[in-house]
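Example 3.
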Amino acid sequence: MPVCDETVDRLLLQVSKPARYIGQEWNSISKDWDTLSATLALAYPDLYELGMSNLGLAILYDIVNRHPQYCAERVYAPWPDMEANLRAHHVPLYSLETRHALSEFSVVGFTLQSELTYTNVLNMLDLGGVPVLAAQRGDEAPVVIAGGTCTYNPEPMTPFVDAFAIGEGEEAILDILGVVAEARAAKATRDDLRRALAAIAGVYVPAMYRPRHGASGVYAGVAPLEGAPSTITKRIVRQLPPAPTRPVVPHLQATHDRATIEIQRGCSRGCRFCQAGIVYRPIRERPAAEIVQAIDELVGNTGYDEIGLLSLSSSDHTDIEAIVQQALDRHSHDGVGVSLPSLRIDSFSVELARMISSRRKTGFTFAPEAGSQRLRDVINKGVTEQDLLQTAQAAFAHGWNRIKLYFMIGLPTETDQDVLEIARLAHELARMGREMRGRRVEISISVATFVPKPHTPFQWEPLITRSDATRRQRLLREALRGRAFKLSYSDWDSTWLEALLARGNRCLGDVIYSVWQRGARFDAWSEYLDVPLWQQALAEAGFDTENELHAPRTRETPLSWQHIDTGVAISFLWAERECALRGDLSPDCREHCHHCGILATFAAERSTVEAGAWGCP
Amino acid sequence: MQTEAVQRLRITYGVDGPLRYLSVLDMGRLWERLLRRARLPLAFTQGFNPHPRMAFAAPLPVGYSSTHEVLDVYLGAIVAPEGALAAICAESPVGLCLQSVVEVPLSAPPMQAIMRAAAYEVAAWSAASPEQMRQCLQWALDSDALLYERVRAGRTQSIDLRPLLLKARYLGQDEAHRLELTMVCSPQGAGRPEELLAALEIGESHWAVCRSRLYWDAHTEE
């Protein structure tokens, strides 16, 4: 039974931004449940405004709703004022489309894009009437699944999730819904359902694995039970499915308030800190004609004034210039612009930025990541100081007065001297800008703290210590005085928690459960992140966070995520780590194959696509 | 991008259902996208961040429905108003009820500047008796001042609602008490029915407001 409209209406007048909770947006899809064999709640464990900017969920929404027997409906984390109202009036968390409680869906699927949303997952299940612990769900309860990049280390969330979909979800989601629909029709038990789900490629059912412990009680990975596979290999699609061109247009201004199209999946640059660069392999480009056609449809179907061309490195698409030119030729007279996140550092990118910013000349943004050449070589950024200076010069020459630079501190082998190089570079750019523009320019420096992520060449590296991180932030602050500079950096608390959850094992599940019970939610929001609460729960669980975060790991150290296979060989990651420590570069893999393992893993898939469809040589 | 306007269309519409919960900024974005989908030849503002030229007569408070909203849109090319009406209807989301599209002179004064008042149909769920409700409204009309503490963005401001109240009529009771209020809605300020209810202390558990008519200078001249 859907939640009745009058009930919702009364709640909505008492909360901030009620438009988060109403649904019926343009292009949203509501189906008659009587005709369906499986229903999916697509859950985003943060606010509506953030979730509506997520392309992954929009893709799944489109694919599932195209199927005549399935529906996908959306649900987002309610802000604490709405949560209080829902609880006070005993109203369950409901889907936006048909206002069914989460407990009424056959599948509740979460996307895990940030570790700091984990407690929201528990809270949403609880608000939706679904038992928070997978072990407590009966035959009638929804199947709780999760996907997204965080699931490349699923272990901390294993107590709450029935099945993880590892890798690309476009095909896997239909396989999962098919299995669930069949099990429901056959009145299968939960155990039978688990076994059927575990038989789907790329699906990890944590209840079918037990943690192993070595001689001294040290965690030693997980062991499969009942014939479950010992490693779970991620799913990929052989070619990019058609882009969704009827996305739901949000009622509220979304964080990224634009229509988006994925122009390329994967990245050939091989930056050693970057998890996306590994897990989205291989490179698949969407053909230019398909992109231009999709842009036309997106503009006509949504009315947005901006189209974002998404990829990990937008300027790397073979036909990017022609695509941008055609999009502008066809739509700029209607006030529609194009945006390109993540541009490479070269003068070609400045040309592209110039093309798209004829109307709005905001800051010119690029990401050197590290200040010194030595450290940029360690991370395989593949950018020289000359590249940086020439790019900035081109930007100033074309009229930009603001440059925004992204850096990281805490990278492997980093010294204070490397960090001071960030400041030197910023001063150099400020001087260049003043000379070229004849006025003070603004150099904005954003410094994140590096978290060593699973499945990267740096997965064995420790997290920087708090004292080193704060000292290096202070060094930068002192070296970047002056009105030309705007410095911002990430706060230690969220870095600490992100690192802990990103790299943790199954034992962390108890900690997550315990902090949620004591009120933790919206950990990604500094006003809600309660570090003492986490510390207390970690201490009670006997968790050695110092060791977990800062102890070096050897090639032999069991990793919490070693049963998850991205298709990239661990020997390749280790070799890249060795290259990093020597400062050796690995060139762009479109030109030279480094035998990362992806082609060996997916040889069957590649044999069925046209030559050149993948970026691999 | 066309920045010179050659035609001004006045769109009259109603708001109901989900769209009651949109802020005026959200409503602006909704209309901008709707007009682009309808492929109307919009005229744009100049400057760094051009937007379609359009203006609401009066912002509709979050939570209200309406049967009389007015939006002026400026176009860079001439279109037939009835064609525009059909195009907009086809692209309208749930909760937007299009009533009319007419051409008005480009030189006509901006709607916002000539707004005077608005009528509201109010429903209030309260244990008060009809007689008490009648007396309350009469008391409001007879009093010289009606002080109310308005809380906005965490700040409290004391305002006098009495000069904002123009007419009040009690219509009767079904599941809720039904009232008809006319309040000032002008560049100088706007009365809000739920604030009046709060000031009268009728103990309502919840309310619903529909803005049923906008009054501007041209009306008073009629």
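The domain at 7-108 of chain B is CATH 3.30.70.580 (Alpha-Beta Plaits). The first strand of chain B starts at residue 7 and ends at 15.
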